[in-house]
Design brief:
The chain is mainly alpha-helical and 506 residues long. The chain has helices at 2-31, 38-56, 59-67, 69-73, 80-96, 100-122, 126-145, 154-162, 168-193, 205-219, 256-272, 289-303, 307-320, 330-337, 354-370, 378-390, 416-435, 439-444, 449-458, 468-476, 484-498, and strands at residues 226-230, 236-240, 243-248. A three-stranded mixed sheet has the order 1-3-2, with helices on both faces. Strand 2 (236-240) and strand 3 form a beta hairpin. Helix 15 packs antiparallel against helix 16 (378-390). The radius of gyration is 23 Å and the shape is globular. The structure holds zinc ion. The site of zinc ion (ZN) has 4 residues, from helix 11 and helix 12.
């Protein structure tokens, strides 16, 4: 039986190597590659993806999994052996249900759809994007049909790709809570504070780079295992647990890039701290997009936008950018980096308004999939909801319905994980701060190792051994994603900054 298990491991290790090689090619494409390399790179990636997919969905993997059923039962649920067999079986069964020609159509349509979207957004012409969107949605319906009967409702099949096991009904209920409790908080803040005026400042890019490296090194970035490079849209990718590539961008008049760097650091740390025993298996990665986003958001917001962090970091900031932050201190800077203002663009949204951007997309996606309104009306539906949820008028499609690339590549069901990640970050934070009551003092000293170690022990090391909810339960004791800690956190923080009356918090 050991021989069969070793054979499974060997095959999975090769598949993992292929997938990681593709990941480094993608990193290279977005960070290093000269533009004319794009056509050949698309072929290289398509070939690698096809070979990887064929190897993984081969009948031999299925036979190995069948043979290993008794071996799995001899091992504890928590063990490496049982977890590897269990998770591989789930992945294999799901992958097998989708015919290769549908996969190929989806990947071709994604490439074309992306190019169409870039053009439509550039020319601010929603109608130009319509045919591509129509085709992407049609393929999504065919994709959902592959799982006939496996899910309670069609959208579940899409969510499951990003957040395994998550149900639409559960997300809906969670988001209703946010509509009821988070949306009014935003209105309250805005009516209290008006819209903040942001003075123009200059942050020389070379100094930003220096400052950011200082910060992430304190967090745990070790140049022997990590890289930080500039790109257009920041992301994290990795070649292995010891080869973490994070990216960022720099704006000469603000420090948004710093928060992007801290965000991507959070993603990188999750991958870096997976148990080395899981390396070269399908378990060697974060468990879901929402859990991943909880980690990035934690370092970006709960750490990076906290007062203790800025009490530590502000003197260095003032040293590097004396003109830009003249007249500020840690407290005023903390208020500034937490300013709330409803805005058009999701990726620029603050902590208080971000989830509202997601709820709008989550609702529209279900209606798109169901065909609830003619596709031509999508722009109108978008604008109407922006007014309803955020109280702002959308001036054009480019800053409205065309702002995100996700739908162009068929990534429907993805958005919710951003908001769920925010919620999980607060759930985990509540537990972390119970276990480590002196965290604020440590941050003020520039000491972040205790937080990283807690996350390793309670979340990261498990990789994909357990489901997202099992992972959450192991870390926090909670059996579901609970929006209450996040709303409580926001209310306390914004109450503090904006001097709101203390209502409904404890
Ligand atoms: Zn992220």
């Amino acid at each position: 039986m050991h021989a069969r298990f070793d054979e499974l491991r060997t095959r999975l290790a090769e598949i993992h190597d292929l997938a990681k090689a593709a990941e480094i090619l993608r990193w290279d494409e977005q960070v290093m590659m000269p533009p004319r390399g794009a056509a050949a790179r698309a072929e290289q990636l398509a070939t690698l993806n096809r070979v990887t997919h064929d190897r993984f969905t081969s009948p031999e993997i299925g036979r190995l999994l069948d043979d290993l059923a008794p071996f799995e039962e001899q091992h504890d649920f928590d063990s490496f052996e049982a977890s590897l067999i269990r998770v591989t079986r789930r992945d294999w069964e799901k992958e097998r249900k989708v015919p290769s020609d549908l996969r190929a159509s989806m990947s071709r349509t994604a490439t074309l759809g992306y190019a169409t979207w870039v053009e439509a957004r550039r020319t601010d012409d929603f109608s130009r994007f319509l045919p591509a969107l129509r085709e992407a949605l049609e393929l999504k319906r065919q994709y959902v049909a592959c799982f006939d009967g496996d899910y309670d409702e069609p959208y579940d099949a899409l969510l499951d790709d990003y957040e395994p096991g998550m149900k639409t009904a559960e997300v809906r209920e969670t988001f209703e809570y946010l509509k009821e409790h988070q949306a009014p908080l935003v209105k309250e803040v805005v009516s209290h504070a008006g819209t903040p005026d942001q003075p123009t400042r200059e942050f020389p890019v070379e100094r930003q780079k220096e400052f950011e490296l200082d910060v992430v090194r304190r967090f745990g970035f070790d140049p022997d295992s990590w890289r930080l490079d500039p790109t257009v849209h920041p992301f994290e990718r990795n070649g292995s647990l010891q080869d973490i590539r994070i990216t960022t961008r720099y704006f000469p008049t603000n420090l948004d890039g710093l928060f992007a760097t801290m965000h991507e650091f959070g993603h990188g740390l999750y991958e870096h701290q997976v148990d080395p025993q899981l390396e070269r298996t399908p378990l060697a990665s974060g468990v879901s997009l929402a859990m991943h986003e909880s980690q990035s958001r934690m370092w970006e917001n709960l750490v990076g936008r906290s007062l203790p962090f800025w009490r530590f970091a502000f003197p260095r900031l003032a040293q590097l950018f004396p003109d830009a932050v003249a007249g500020e201190d840690a407290e005023s800077w903390y208020r500034e980096v937490n300013a709330v203002e409803p805005s058009l663009i999701r990726v620029e949204a603050d902590e208080a308004t971000y989830n509202l951007h997601i709820i709008l997309r989550f609702e529209l996606e279900q209606e798109l999939l169901a065909g609830s309104f003619p596709l031509e009306q999508l722009q109108e539906e978008w604008d109407r909801r922006m007014w309803e949820y955020l109280g702002i008028e959308v001036p054009d499609a480019a800053r409205g319905v065309l702002q995100d690339m996700h739908w162009s590549i068929g990534a429907v069901g993805y958005f919710s994980t951003y908001a769920l990640g925010n919620l999980i970050s607060a759930q985990i934070w509540a537990k972390v701060t119970d276990d480590l009551p002196d965290l604020d003092d440590r941050f003020e000293q520039g000491e972040f190792g205790a937080l990283a170690a807690w996350l390793r022990e309670n979340v990261h090391r498990h990789g994909r051994k357990f489901t997202p909810l099992e992972t959450l339960e192991r870390a926090t004791g909670a059996t579901r994603i609970d929006p209450e800690p996040y709303v409580r956190y926001l209310r306390r923080k914004l109450g503090d900054i904006y001097g709101l009356p203390v209502v409904g918090s404890r």
